[in-house]
Specification:
This protein is mainly α. The chain has 26 helices and 4 strands. Helices cover 67% and strands 1% of the residues. The strands form 2 sheets. Strands 1-2 form a two-stranded parallel ribbon. Strands 3-4 form a two-stranded antiparallel ribbon.
Amino acid sequence: MTVLEYWDIHTWFEGFISGITSCLWEHFENIIVEVNQSHSTDTTNTHSRRTVSTRARSMNHLSTDDGVVDNRQRWDKKSHFILVCVGYAVGLGNVWRFPYLCYLSGGGAFLIPYFLMLVVCGIPMLLLEFAIGQFVRYGPVGAFARICPIFKGVGVATVTMTFFLTTYYNVIIAWAIFYLFSSFQSELPWASCNHTWNTEDCFSHEDYDDLEEGELPPNSTVSASEEFFHHRVLGKTKGIEDMGGMRWELLGCLALAYIAVYFCIFKGVKSSGRVVYVTALFPYFLLVTLMVTGFTLPGAFEGIKFFFLPKWELLLDAQVWKAAAAQNFNSIGIAFGSMVAFASFNDFHNRSIVRDTLTICFTNSLTSILACSVIFSVLGYIAEIQNAPSIGEVVASGPGLVFMVYPAAFPTMVVPQLWAVLFFIMLICLGLDSQFAMVEVVITTITDTFPHWKYLYWDRKEILAAYVCIFTFLCGIPCVMEGGIYFFQLMDWYTCIVSVGFIAFFEVIAVGWFYDARRLSRNIQQMTGVRANYYFVVCWMFLAPLLLLAILIFSIVDYEVVEYGGYAYPVWAECFGWLIALVSIACIPVGAIHAVMTAKGSLRERLMSSLKTTLDDERHAAKFMADGGYSAVYDQSKF
């Protein structure tokens, strides 16, 4: 049987809707039960008795012995796993990073490598991570240590990279909070050029309406929304060498963002299914509304054409391919460890992981295309009112693109303040979803890797969560200084674009070659009753490693320095960026050395022992056969 034979869309859709309905009702019942439960002084009993929500359930507890723990937490329902994975994958990366990288890489030229990377790397590697987590039943650190001890550093590298990401990711939420507060005014502050932070080059929608028929806007103008972001929100300096003073308003917004993250974790993220259901659909409602509005603006067609028509010469640029790979990994969550952790809480005999993989990947990609359609329609409008010679010269490409483009459309809408408030609430919700999931990865790794440190936080999760939130908050302070945008861009480039490619390459090598892709296919058969399609095996063994290796080699040969809006970083800043990248990448060789040094025997025996998995597939799978698992020879009547 092939994967497509199981892909019955009608049946899946009915099951998905039914799962959501059950999820909503069960969450409601859980809230009633939890309200009436008395608090026990025994932390362990309390933890096992509580009904934990989907996100808390994903990483709250990992076993620490070599066997399989019988009381390991599981998802309450299958729909919970789908919702939390879609919620984690569909986030700020779709409405923020994807349009930014697409604009930076020449519009349509980015889509070709993006979808090629999705088919060759994105989908196969997400299935790989789901299979590893569900079969081994450990988080990323424990899973890779058992799959191939010499590559246990890959799991540590994923968590290290996730930690770096948490230190600056909340800054985006802080920007959104600043915009949210600014939206409660009689006139949106980025709608006109009549403010102290505006320059003579500012040109707004009002100025465009005042033009006489046939009159063209002056050249070299800057949109009012771009000036608001750079001069009012950031107080941007001329470069990273001039960090300037503290943006106290942004610092306060960053503190609010971390308080929100902390209480999400402190409460075990006990949000009802009804809230999850609303936050899952609300972004699509708002994006579709903005897209319809954007398509009616003058110049929108030129922006859409820039998005879908590729510049073929840019396909020869290795940076475009590297950005496409990084976007797949960042958006879906590959090589960050989260998906391995999520899948580790599935039932061992959950047989829909292939379908789950396709659902998450295609939902994620379609959301990105929808967000980009909105962005580029508004970019076409801005180019029209600025009389810009090219869409690519409208605004400075950078991580703040979403805050310069989306707001430009609000003044053209009825009740612009309402749409602005809804939009930035959406950004905050999307950002919080991903942020507290990443913080949970860090917290869980600490508790599992350093159990003897529990005296520092008295074996209470809320204390450890406070430690992590305070520390990452302090690490993010440079990003809210006047030169913080340059520091933010530096961290984002070397953490999520440079590092992720190396880690993903070693991840697929560890599983595809040393653990053996065919063995992983048999593991999938033991869990689901059917082996993975040969296409996935070929991708794990050949296509994904070769494509990732080629991108890494050409990226080094055709290395381009990071920049922001035409600003070239000094050498010392680039060295600092590479240091950040190497901290996570270095975990891989350090882990390999540690595995060899801690093994027994001669050097050759240690090396050979480190290359062998510590898993006994048959013995491991046999523990779950009585609970509905599948043996190597399965009964097709069950399907």
